[in-house]
Each structure stands twice: as C-alpha cells, then as structure tokens.
Write a structure and sequence with these properties.
binds magnesium ion; 14 helices; 7-stranded parallel sheet; binds guanosine-5'-triphosphate; alpha/beta; 7 strands
C-alpha cells in the first residue's frame, strides 16, 4: 500500500503529525483510507509497545476534562508521554463540548509530552468502537506511555470504553443526597476506580458524603477475580486544588501492576482482541452479504417480521437461505 510504510514508520518514530494523520485515516469511511489504515496497523502490529490504557467516563459536566488535564499534567511532569482521546458517542451533541475540551485542556495540549485528540464531529453509527480501538493502538504504537480515553457517559459508551481499555474510571459529581445519581449497576460493575469529583471548597462536604454512599455500594458488588483486595475503590478528588490526584494514580498503578503479575492484563487484552475480531468479522460478513440486493431485501423483510412479533431464529433462517 502506497504511503503506508512511510506513515507507519513516522508513527513509530513518535511523529505527532503522522499520528494525527493516521487517526484521521482510521476515522474515515472511505475505502481507500480504510486500506491504508489496515496496512499501517499491520506494519505496527507486534511492535511490543504497550501503553497503559485508561478509560474515563461520567455524566456531562462531572469534571472529566478538567480531571484529565490535571491528571495528565501530573504524569507528564513525571516524564510520561500522555495521549488523550475524546470519544463522543452521541452524534446529536453539539460541537460545544469539543471546543470546550480543547480550551479546558489548554495547558496539557501545550505540554511537550502530550497529545490531545478531540472526538470527530459526526459519528457513523457503530463505528465508534473500531475508531477508538484503532486510535488507541496508534497512540500506543507512537510510544505513548499512557492513553486516556474520555467519554461522556450515555449508558452504553461506558461499557464500550471499558472494553477497549486496561483500567476504567467512573467519575461522579459531589451530588449531595441524590442517592447514587442514577449510575447504573452495570456501569459500576465495570469500574475499577470510582472518583467523586470537585471535592473542594463548598462542595467538599457533599463530596465526602457521596464518597461514603458509593464506597458502600461498591462493597455490595460481587467480587471480581481480576481485582486484588479492596478494589474496586472509591476516592474523592479535586482537579482544582489537586487533592487526591496522586493517590488516584498510585491506586491505578498498583492495580495495573497486580493484574500484570497475575496474568489478568494479558488475559483481558486477549479477550478484548478476540471480541473485536468477532465483531469485525460479523460486521464485514453482513456488509458483504447485504451487498446482494436479494439478501438485503430478505433481511429487511425479516426485520419487519421480527418487529411484528415473529421469531428471530425462524426469520434469520429465511435470510440465510438466500445466501
Ligand atoms: N470546584 C470544582 N469544579 C470543577 C472541578 N473540575 C471541574 N470543575 C468544573 O465543572 C465544570 C465541568 O467541567 P468539565 O471538566 O468540562 O466536565 P466534563 O465532564 O468534561 O464535561 P463534558 O465533557 O461536557 O461532559 C466546569 O465548569 C469546571 O470548571 C473541580 O475539581 N472542582
Ligand atoms: Mg469534557
């Protein structure tokens, strides 16, 4: 593939402009761009580079970007190279948050060891997971030590990001009294660390109360084999005054180290890889099959049949009989 060798080489050398270009190609839906992306990813595969991938999610305005900037600056200060990817799963959201993310991460974006990639404006349905996965891999291949993936929590985006990262952090606001703020149990179950944000000034007391509620709720969850004693864990942080940020990093690092030692890191990545493979094959097969108008029509008819109460297995058999 023309140009792919050069692009892959530049990405591997840590060239930021090449990395940005490679991510843009990975975000594209054009067939020729897709071909270059796959060639680049293939050349970079097996490079042995592994960043610590951390997913961060939470309700709009909970303080994700402010946290990522303060936290990221702390890591850059330790000499780590930090990449930040913003994922916006809902195409209905305005561009406001994207601009907001940029301005709120001004200091981090100027740091020499940092790379910030806002989410693309429009999102082709279903393409978010692939795009995010490939952007993470490209950052990793470019030599970043830490890849932070910020996503707005809209129910399914959290589990999607958790399925692409090594550690998943759920951020909640210091909402005094509003019992657990409607955070769904399934999302708490995928969190490795739960951070109550804005634990400063007037909000400090509310944050401590909220912390108590979440700590109690986490204790009620069933233990997970990939966790050492005491995890998942709830903590209070302030991106404004910096309190709790170092402690949060310490806990995340300890958890990552424990999982590496026990083989959970590798097992999780392998499981994530095979799940992504299955999804890619499934989506690819479906696209190939429905390129035939007769199959596409049979699928549409089957969908209508199932929507009207028909049996999915029976309807699927009818579609597959056309293949
Ligand atoms: N007091 C206090 N305010 C904070 C803190 N962190 C963020 N904020 C404020 O909370 C608001 C939202 O912060 P963001 O970091 O943009 O929140 P976000 O979760 O990234 O928001 P979206 O990306 O729009 O979902 C801003 O007005 C911040 O100044 C904090 O640690 N303390
Ligand atoms: Mg944000």
């Amino acid at each position: 593939m023309e140009g792919a060798d050069e692009l892959a080489g530049a990405v591997a050398a840590g060239d930021r402009r090449a990395l940005a270009r490679a991510i843009t190609l990975a975000e594209s839906t054009r067939g020729d761009h897709r071909a270059v992306t796959l060639a680049v990813l293939e050349r970079l595969a097996g490079d042995g580079r592994q960043a610590l991938r951390i997913g961060l999610s939470g309700a709009p305005g909970v303080g994700k970007s402010t946290f990522v900037e303060a936290f990221g600056l702390g890591r850059v200060g330790e000499g780590l190279r930090v990449a930040v990817l913003a994922v916006d799963p809902s195409s209905v959201r305005s561009g406001g948050s994207i601009l907001g993310d940029k301005t709120r991460m001004e200091r981090l974006s100027r740091a020499p060891g940092a790379f910030i990639r806002p989410s693309p404006n429009r999102t082709a349905l279903g393409g978010v997971a692939r795009r995010t996965r490939e952007a993470i891999r490209l950052c990793e291949a470019a030599g970043f030590d830490l890849v932070l993936v910020e996503t707005v929590g809209v129910g399914q985006s959290e589990t999607m990001v958790a399925g692409l990262t090594d550690l998943f952090v759920l951020l909640v606001g210091p909402g005094a009294g509003d019992e657990l703020q409607g955070v769904k149990r399934g999302i708490m179950e995928v969190a490795d660390l739960l951070l109550v944000t804005k634990a400063d000034g007037d909000l400090a007391a509310a944050a401590q109360r909220t912390l108590g509620e979440y700590a109690g709720a986490l204790r009620l969850l069933r233990g997970r084999p990939q966790d050492p004693e005491g995890y998942p864990l709830a903590m209070a942080v302030s991106a404004l005054d910096g309190s709790g940020l170092e402690a949060a990093w310490e806990r995340l690092r300890a958890l990552a180290a424990w999982r590496r030692e026990r083989g959970w890191w590798a097992r999780t990545r392998a499981a994530q890889g095979t799940a992504a493979l299955a999804e890619e094959v499934r989506a690819g097969l479906l696209a190939r099959l429905t390129a035939d108008p007769a199959v596409a029509a049979a699928l549409a008819a089957a969908e209508a049949e199932v929507a009207a109460g028909g049996d999915p297995g029976v309807a699927a058999a009818r579609v597959l009989a056309r293949v």
